[in-house]
Batch of 2 targets.
Target 1
Amino acid sequence: MALFGRVFRIVLIVGLVLGVLALVVYSMQLDEIVRKQFEGRRWALPARVFARPLEVFNGQQLYSDHLEQELKLLNYVAVEKSPTETGQYLRKGDNFEIVTRGFQFAEDVEPPRSIKVALARGKVTSLELANNQAPLPVMRIEPVLIGNFYPSQNEDRVLVRIKDVSPLLVNGLLAVEDKKFYEHQGVNPMAIARAMVTNLKAGQTVQGGSTITQQLVKNFYLTNERSWERKLKEALMALLLELHYNKQEILEAYLNEIYLGQDGSRAIHGFGLAAQFYFNRPVRELKPDQIALLVGLAKGAAYYDPRRFPERALERRNLVLTVMEQEGVLTAAEANESRSRPLGVSEHRPSGASPFPAYLDLVRQQLQRDYREEDLRSEGLLIFTAMDPIVQLTAEQIVIKRVQQLERANRIPKNKLSGSMIISTVQGGEVIALVGGLDVRYPGYNHALIAQRQIGSLVKPAIYLAAFEAKGKYGSLG
């Protein structure tokens, strides 16, 4: 018996040592995975294509209706009194008060401004800051997003930095998802134990004990497989993540990674894109009730989809508002006022498809000469074009109207003719509008780029101009 006891202890010690060594080796492998992906390029980001920014200055040719049309394309909200928040405007005849959002351009930043613009006879007659009425020489309104080139896995996100996000969103998220976020080291044993007891009593999974760090690990590194092996791996990776990175870095990654909806084949990731997808506004402009809805979607974006299941989503949003009130994130008055609001989700979901597919064909064609397709779809490029949205919309209307007139005048069956148009600047030849066919909102055969036709007499002005510029070389032009 004594011999058996000694052998058993030796085997046990050897087993423990080997187990510890295996755990150390496994942890080192996981640690390399955690650091490599978190420190590298974390996401494949779509390239975003923008129209030209609208420059405003005294004497500029600009009509009031065109200015308002551009603001609507940017999802600015018309208000009935002086605007106080970014993304709002007030129009009184030919006079505008606008609180712009600002924009990060390639080389500089256009800050948010509160401005007053006066127009008359199609020209800007006055441009000044609204707060102190100081004259403003020139300013730019942010450009309209005209298209995207998505990664192969069709994930879409708009990256946000934690300093640019409302504290209400951060505090509300922590109140609902992880109250002890700043106290634990990646795993909260008390929350796990509490969830296990609750689930055992219910006979099914009704409560989770995962921290925000664990949720980030699951979404960032792992799959949705339900197994003890996956949960243990998730916990270990969460501990490793917290070992290397601070809380702000982890929280910022979570804000950009969390899955919050689906638009056909396009997956909506992160609060930055979700704010646009559900409310047509940047995340920093969200109201408390809108923040609560997005926080509620983190539990199950498909189950609480506000467009498909509005009653279910409303109940979840109000529960989140109640938790935010209980945790001191909102006052009782703010929570009650927010609960009384409707969901307020935009009726039509913003499509990931370009509203100007013909022009986007031109952009893609030119970019493919200088960039690899992989870079276009994964490096998060910001591409600025010369497209003028107002000229583009006007050109589309002209082509459609003219083709319809030709069909009626020549008794041609409807939809038998098509048409196209390209408009460029005189000075530099930049293409500011392109119409590829009559079905202007859908990609298809792009007559402007693909169709090859005899240009006929259209070439004569260019030939004659070249001849006039070379005086005496071609003899008499009479």
Target 2
Amino acid sequence: MFKKIALVCLVSLMSFQAKAQEKKTQIYLDDSQPIELRVEDALSKMTLEEKVAMLHAQSKFSSPGVPRLGIPEFWTTDGPHGIRPEVKWDEWDQAGWTNDSIIAYPALTALSATWNKKMSWNYGKALGEEARYRKKDILLGPGVNIYRTPLNGRNFEYMGEDPFLSSKMVVPYIKGVQSNGVAACVKHYALNNQEQFRHTSNVIIDDRTLYEIYLPAFKAAVQEGDTWSIMGAYDMYKNQYASQNQYLLNDILKKEWGFKGVVISDWGAVNDTKQAIMNGLDMEFGSWTNGLSEGTSNAYDNYYLAHPYLKLIKSGEVGTKELDDKVRRILRLAFLTTMNKNKPFGNIASEEHRAIAKEIGEEGIVLLKNQKNVLPINVAKTKKIAVIGENAIKMMTVGGGSSSLKVKYETLPLDGIKARFGKDAEVTYARGYVGDVTGEYNGVKTGRDLTDNRSQAELTKEAVELAKNSDFVIFVGGLNKSDFQDSEGNDRKDMGLPYHQDELISALAKANKNFSVVLVSGNAVEMPWVKEVPSILQTWYLGSEAGNALASILAGDANPSGKLPFSFPVKLEDNGAHKLGEFPGNKEEIAAGKGKDKNNPINIKYNEGIFVGYRWHDTKNIKPLFSFGHGLSYTTFEFGKVKADKTKISKDDKITFTVSVKNTGNREGAEVVQLYISDLKSSLPRPTKELKGFEKVNLKPGETKEVSITVDKSALSFFDPVKHDWVAEPGDFEALIGNSSSDIKTKLKFSLQ
């Protein structure tokens, strides 16, 4: 009996040792081995069913790994501005966690307005740390869709109208996020430049416009940022949905750019199994469970890349070549994220994160106007400060769509102003207008009751009286994250301010000359009162530290250095997309009822072509209200004469432009040196000038620094649709350096040989 037991034990031990040895020698588990070897090893051990299972969701925000092989599941999260609160497995409702409150960072318009690549890295790193702490593997952001129209409800999530600025700001963000072992997922690829008809539109665009305006930021994300994932968009291009698009995903992204990462669908963006198989999609999320379609008990098995795909393989209708490519990409992602043993632990809502949020907010605020130096507020001469406007007391972290957050705290503008000025002055408040009094989104509640049943006449009277009896008036208004304002799923109906704000601002301007308008928005707005008010601040959605960042600028504790990432037109008709009539879509087709469902998509033609934003204003000689790149300071700067290290360059050469910048005021401050290039004679129409370089420089009073910007032929090139290539034509060019697209300080001609 004893011998039998001993023999069984020996056999068991040997079996255990053999299995242990087998496990030990598994290449895919050995992180000392090259990733490609690990990928091929893991792939060889997977069953057909396991491969297919990895291609689609298993819950609202997760997809399965391979438990048998010790490959963990993937967890995604919304969060271009902060990590989304936990929801139930198969519902959008809150999961009821008590430890998922986070720091909300400024919206990406604010980040882009810093024109500071270091700030972008800090932002990405901090956000990635919070994602990692929450055990998320894929961060669904950042967004780099181009600001084509000021009516796009989702512009606040993006980086502005210029492809070069967006390209340079997105790269450090990606690297910061991914330094935590969390994948950035750059979105929405591509041509998703409006919310209306986003599920039912077909974008018609020429190749040159596509490559010069709408693709560069995505290309930079891939080739310079090495993003590990990309999110496909909802719209169609060449009559194929972007998340299953041969041209965008296979031809451009994977072949031309060499993208080795994972293409993830937007939630509910997949519409056909064979196209999803053949046209470049790797992971499918949200089909039938996106809140827009009826769910079923086995919904995840019914996804286009689930049982329908498996059935096609088993029937012999499709092979496994495409499947293996998709799984290889997912495995690479796993080794960089879920199976990365060296990734940091992360942290959440730390003091460092709070400081970063505040600093980005301060740097992103743009001083649009400051007549007679009304700002900063002189505390010595100011004993009564009136704060007026709903946005001074309204939380902006809740609402707006998928970027809605559950925060540990949000310092409101009124609270920030009281905290900063309350010891030196009496701070009083009047509502001024009533807009959106709701305070809940997907189960996250602000806990604030903003109900006010007074008439607009009563509200205006109270506000004006308070203004008359105060030393300084701060109006905090703008837009909010309600439907048809800055919000996912809807576009704005016009460019004006809602809730009778225009009339109120004019009345306040008459009541007190010491007056500053603070605009909270992610979009440009019309300002019929612009000549009546002495000071205007564009403050975006600044997240948890909104009130503190604003107060810091108002007090002069921080010197504003933000620059607009998009143009402010005087009126909507001054925007190219609206002037030429193809927004929100073809007028005849809208009249015929197209765009209401996917069976009757509407065409949207980008008639303005490459002339987007300042390119349109400059070329058509239309003066904007505020130019791209515009932003004032509490100090003044003087630019010297630009110099170059040569005046003639070859196609393989580079040229460096150098300019001195002097702080001629009495405050420390930062200026953004902006380099624009003008092609003086081209075979194809080109914009008057295009941004091709920028550097932010900090200067003490009286200090002078030299700023150098180097460019190569890529800065001189345009995309030739006939050659399907970038072309730099020999000839004369001009370098223009200034601090906005309309304020050029110095110029220099040079030539390409």
